[in-house]
Every structure is written in structure tokens, then in C-alpha cells.
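Backbone-to-sequence.
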């Protein structure tokens, strides 16, 4: 490491993430508007850390780098838990809404790219440079950014493609975490929607202890942990089979599918009433999933290097302000209406900001914050991860290729 770079080792980074998650929860409890608008607690703690590291960089010229290797494992545990809580009957019912959401997200990608290309032209840049501030960095996330940026540099001559993409992804990730909850709260109140009040959440536990149907024992956690590990092993096996067949999927999608397979095979074997409780493992799964998701998002925000925005700040801020405005209007006026104008639709709307501006994890953490306050939305937690984590990546790659000419 260079003299002005300070590396925080893995165990220390993980422990700091726990402390930051506590800090986020404390802030949400202390400042009522944060809870009222369902601002995710991990966002508060993670962004606090990112702000502190930015201050250290600008004032003391110290670059803090965190070892975040465990972060990706937490994401696998989270999606394994989502799969294990997924009833195939809800998945079948979600077929039509899933298709509608995919079409909506696909149309939005085109609009997103046209907007960013227009902004790039307004700044006198190659319009295709705007794609780095469109669906590449926002809908696609950091992985898609890292994949496309070298091609834009080598084939299109856009030298700062990587910097533009990373800067856009940074701002988009923060924005996605902040707009989802307020959008859902506005829709619920504006349309007088009836929340489900269902305490059987896919992720986490209800905001008030009175909504928890039964206490969680250490055996509930142990059962859940065992099923999660078995799901991760099966998901790894799925990944190997797909790779050998020439198909590449994100690891978390394989774990999600593995969880769905295990859950529904068990349900078919021993009956729906018995599987529903798993000796309490369902609540254990929800709790572990909540912790893993919160820790993942805290660590993702910890790793943000806000100073990278410096060289392209005006261009990025202009483009992202317009992108965020477009996302809010599209979600409220179109996504909510097309998805049914009900409580499930409001939860999906909360997640759409993650689809459009952030990542699958931000989509889920937005929906989690809403459901912990208003009750479960089972269908939303099936179709949004599938659209975010699988289908939309294929559509996005095709649209980027067509619009960039690569």
C-alpha cells in the first residue's frame, strides 16, 4: 500500500460494519422522519462511514480502503433465504406481473439511455459516453460498469469511461436507497391502500414486537442456518452445471433458485402446514436474511470512494438529477399503475428505484424497510429479485450493444 493509503483488514472491516448497522438503527429510532419514510437503516450507517472516509481523504490526504471480501458471501446467504421462503404457488401466480415488470424495466432502460446520451451531447461529449451514466452503471450496477468500460475506452475512444461509470454508480446507489421508502409511503397514503399487516416477512421481523406471532428460539436460528448452508451448496452445484453448459449466471441467482427448489421439494414431501413452521425456522430465515442484507449494504456503502466524483462532478450531478427525477415519475405514474395499484404494487414501486438506479440489494432493502412497517408482500419478493438479478441483465446487454454500436 502507498504511504497515504490505510488498509482496514477483513475482521476489523466486518466488525466496523456491525457497529455502523447499530448506528443506523439508532439514528432511525432517534429521528422519527427517517422511520416514517422507511429510509433503510443500513444506508444511514454505511453512508456515515463513506462521508467520514471522504473527509479523511480531502483534509488529511488519507485514502481508507476496506477489505470487504465477506460482503459477497452475505449476499449469497440473503438470496438463499429468499428462495427458502418462496412458495412455488406464489411464483406461478407471479408469472404475469413478472412479465409486466420486465417490460416496464426494459422500456425504462431505453428512456434512461436516451436521457443520458442527450445530457452528454449537451456537455459537448460523445453521446455514447452518456451510456456510462445510463443503464450501464445504474440498471447494470458496478459489475456491468467494469465489464463495459474497457470496451468503451478501447473501441469508442472514451478515455474516462470507467470514471464516469463508477461515479454514476456511486450517486445512483445512494439515491436508490433514499427514494424507495418515500415513494411507497406516498403511494400508500395518496391512494389509501390497505397494508397486508402479514407478519410472516421474507426478510426481517416486523417493526413492532406486537406483530411477531411467536418468539424465536436458538433452535429456530440453528435450523435456518443449516438449511441456508445446504442451499448455498446446492446453488454452487447449479452454478457449476450451468458453467459447464456455457451459461453464466450471477451466483446469487443460483442460490435463489436452489432455495426455491429445496423449499418446494420439502413442501411436496411433508405437507404445506408442517413446512410452514419448520419448527420456527421460517422466522429464523427472515432474521438471518435481514442481518445479511443489512451487513451487505453497509459494507457496499463503506467501500464507496466519494472523492472519485471530483473530475466529472458537474456532468454526473446534472445527469443523475435528471435520472432520479425520471425514475420517480416513471415509478409513480406508470409502474405503480401497471402493477395493480394495490399494496403489493407500492412495495414493487419501492424496489423499482433499486432496479433503475442501484442494484438488486438496494431494491430488496427498500422493500424490506416498507414491509417491516406495513406487512409482508410475498409476490413482490419473488418477481423483483428475478427481474433485477436475471432477466433485466440480458435485456440490458442487448440494448447497450445496440445503442453503443459495439
Amino acid at each position: 500500500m502507498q504511504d497515504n493509503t490505510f488498509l482496514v483488514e477483513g475482521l476489523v472491516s466486518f466488525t466496523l460494519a456491525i457497529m455502523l448497522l447499530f448506528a443506523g438503527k439508532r439514528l432511525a429510532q432517534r429521528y422519527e422522519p427517517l422511520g416514517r419514510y422507511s429510509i433503510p437503516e443500513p444506508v444511514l450507517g454505511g453512508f456515515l462511514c463513506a462521508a467520514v472516509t471522504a473527509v479523511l481523504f480531502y483534509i488529511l490526504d488519507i485514502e481508507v480502503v476496506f477489505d470487504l471480501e465477506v460482503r459477497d458471501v452475505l449476499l449469497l446467504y440473503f438470496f438463499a433465504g429468499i428462495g427458502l421462503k418462496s412458495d412455488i404457488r406464489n411464483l406461478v401466480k407471479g408469472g404475469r406481473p413478472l412479465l409486466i415488470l420486465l417490460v416496464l424495466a426494459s422500456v425504462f432502460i431505453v428512456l434512461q439511455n436516451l436521457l443520458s446520451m442527450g445530457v452528454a451531447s449537451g456537455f459537448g461529449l460523445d453521446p455514447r459516453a452518456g451510456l456510462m451514466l445510463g443503464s450501464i452503471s445504474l440498471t447494470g450496477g458496478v459489475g456491468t460498469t467494469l465489464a463495459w468500460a474497457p470496451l468503451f475506452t478501447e473501441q469508442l475512444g472514451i478515455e474516462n469511461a470507467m470514471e464516469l461509470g463508477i461515479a454514476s454508480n456511486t450517486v445512483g446507489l445512494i439515491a436508490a436507497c433514499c427514494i424507495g421508502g418515500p415513494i411507497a409511503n406516498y403511494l400508500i397514503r395518496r391512494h389509501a391502500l390497505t397494508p397486508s399487516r402479514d407478519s410472516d416477512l421474507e426478510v426481517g421481523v416486523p417493526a413492532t414486537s406486537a406483530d411477531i406471532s411467536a418468539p424465536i428460539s436458538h433452535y429456530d436460528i440453528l435450523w435456518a442456518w443449516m438449511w441456508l448452508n445446504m442451499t448455498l451448496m446446492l446453488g454452487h452445484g447449479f452454478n457449476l452445471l450451468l458453467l459447464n453448459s456455457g451459461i453464466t449466471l450471477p451466483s446469487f441467482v443460483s442460490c435463489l433458485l436452489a432455495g426455491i427448489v429445496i423449499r418446494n421439494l420439502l413442501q411436496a414431501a411433508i405437507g404445506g402446514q408442517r413446512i410452514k413452521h419448520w419448527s420456527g425456522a421460517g422466522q429464523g430465515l427472515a432474521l438471518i436474511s435481514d442481518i445479511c442484507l443489512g451487513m451487505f449494504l453497509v459494507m457496499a456503502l463503506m467501500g464507496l470512494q466519494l472523492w472519485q466524483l471530483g473530475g466529472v462532478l458537474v456532468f454526473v450531478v446534472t445527469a443523475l438529477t435528471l435520472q432520479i427525477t425520471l425514475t420517480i415519475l416513471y415509478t409513480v405514474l406508470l409502474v405503480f399503475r401497471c402493477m395493480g395499484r394495490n399494496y403489493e404494487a407500492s412495495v414493487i414501486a419501492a424496489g423499482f428505484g433499486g432496479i433503475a438506479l442501484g442494484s438488486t440489494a438496494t431494491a430488496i432493502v427498500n422493500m424490506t424497510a416498507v414491509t417491516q412497517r406495513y406487512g409482508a408482500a410475498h409476490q413482490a419478493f419473488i418477481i423483483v429479485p428475478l427481474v433485477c438479478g436475471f432477466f433485466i441483465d440480458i435485456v440490458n446487454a442487448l440494448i447497450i450493444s445496440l445503442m453503443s454500436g459495439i
